[in-house]
Automatic annotation (TrEMBL):
Protein origin, superkingdom: Eukaryota
Alphabetic keyword roster: Metal-binding, Zinc, Zinc-finger
Residue stretches making up the PHD-type domain: 2-59
One of the record's GO molecular function terms: zinc ion binding
The keyword 4Fe-4S is annotated on this UniProt entry: no
SUPFAM superfamilies xref list: FYVE/PHD zinc finger
Organism placement in taxonomy: Eukaryota, Metazoa, Ecdysozoa, Arthropoda, Hexapoda
Name the UniProt record assigns to this protein: PHD-type domain-containing protein
Annotated InterPro entries: Zinc_finger_PHD-type_CS (IPR019786), Znf_FYVE_PHD (IPR011011), Znf_PHD (IPR001965), Znf_PHD-finger (IPR019787), Znf_RING/FYVE/PHD (IPR013083)
Gene3D superfamilies: Zinc/RING finger domain, C3HC4 (zinc finger)
Organism: Acanthoscelides obtectus
Amino acid sequence: MENSCGHCHLAFSRLKPSIACDGFCQHSYHIFCVGVVTEVLKVIKTPGLFWYCVECTERKKNYEEWYKTNFEERVNKLVTNVFDLFSEAQSKLMVKVEEKLESSVDCRVASGQSLSYANAVRNNIVNVLVKTKNAGQSNTETKLKIYQAVNPVDSSIRFSQVKHVKDGGLLIKCNSFTNAVKLMSLASQHLSDEYEVREIKRNNPRLKIVGISESMSLDELHSNLIAQNIVLKNSSECKVLKLWPTKKSPGVFQAIVDVDNPTYLKLLERGHVLVNFDSCKVYDAVDLKVCFKCCGLNHYAEFCKSDRQVFVKCSQRHMISECSEQVLKCNNCVNARYPDVHHAAWDSSECKFYKDKLIEYKKILFGNE
């Protein structure tokens, strides 16, 4: 530190307090030369505070402007280039992974091993539906049309199964998303407008959220869940299907949410989500469809192919108005010869047949053996 003031060049003394510049010059000044009063000097000397003289303040301002116009622009450009390189590397990696998966499928087919639905899920199988809009057309006619439009050998489209569906449709299980896109593109180009070609999305697991203290729209609830819960923010899929009040407390609401498999498992383990200031409980909501015509599972009555009407209360063939039974009887457990049959076909807590089928469904849903 110099012994004279950087402004008046006079020596320092006890009667003339001084202040040191924390800027480029590192000079000291009499406080009255730079307009600093004693009260302000006490504040400036607090640890962590800095004081700059007029010249250093101007130089600092010029330096910050130069940095912003030159260096900051270069850094942003460098970050953009790095991001582009990362995106390109990620795309190449995904192509390699897809090729590896397809190669794995080919090896299993060549070795004669069966491809279970669980393995199909693991290998990114995508279901494509080809369906005619003309009533009465057979599955064979549809198959002939799709073969004329898309030759799987010439187009190198790989699929693992072709399944007949109702109304003359075909469900084609492609071995990858790339093959599915290629199939849908070629079929849409060569088939007339009388055919519908689209991807069939696999079912996602569902969760029930209980303890929401206010009613809101489905979109508002979705936005809150995404904004407040990092698990859902990073989720590939999240859809709020329903929001309604609980029976016990009309002022408390519950919701059904459709999520992807990893998010489902993480939220069940976590046990709760945040909605505004509510910590809401999370429960498993994966269930099976129950047909009230044949008492079967995995379909509803409007899509039931059975010609028999089975009353869900007593498992007998008659109309509801004709039933005089007072004790429930599950038709599914009767047919499966389970000892306990006195419960409803949809009772997930009592019906062993329902429980067994639900376990099988979850194995399919999560791709487990």
